[in-house]
Amino acid sequence: MAGAQPRTSCRSLVKQLEILPVPCQCILSLMNFIINNQGFLQTDLSMHNINTKNKYHLHRPNANLSCFQKSKFYAGIKIFNSLPPSMTIVENDKAKFKAT
User: Mind listing the pLDDT tens digit of every residue in the chain (100 residues)?
Assistant: First the structure.
């Protein structure tokens, strides 16, 4: 794509071509999955009526099996809850969430 030599570092090319690195692409696809399936997920506020600072976080289901705790679904909820509140407020507007 860029006409670079085989042994050239990709770091500057990724910045130049404005391509997300692979870990960032995985996180973005997980967040898109969570946003698209928001109707199937519950918030902590819907689980209990206690007014806490994390009441708008997504509720992580209880999981005893480590294979479920390592799943993409569970990881997506975990990553979504670690986003700043300014990003999670726009969760219903998919285009706006993707832009932020």
Answer: 778 888 888 888 888 888 888 888 888 888 888 888 777 777 766 677 777 777 777 777 777 788 777 778 878 888 888 888 777 766 566 777 777 7
Report yes or no on 72 lying in a domain: yes
Residue 42, domain member (yes or no): yes
Radius of gyration of the chain (CA): 18
Residue 5 falls inside a structural domain: no
- Name residue 14's amino acid: V
Helix (H, G, I), strand (E, B) or coil at 67: helix
- Tokens 């570092």: give the residue: 9
Overall pTM > 0.85: no
Amino acid letter for position 50: I
Residue 49, in any domain of the structure? yes
Q: Give dist(CA 39, CA 89) in Å, integer.
A: 15
Instruction: State how many domains the chain has.
Output: 1
Domain that holds residue 88: 21-99
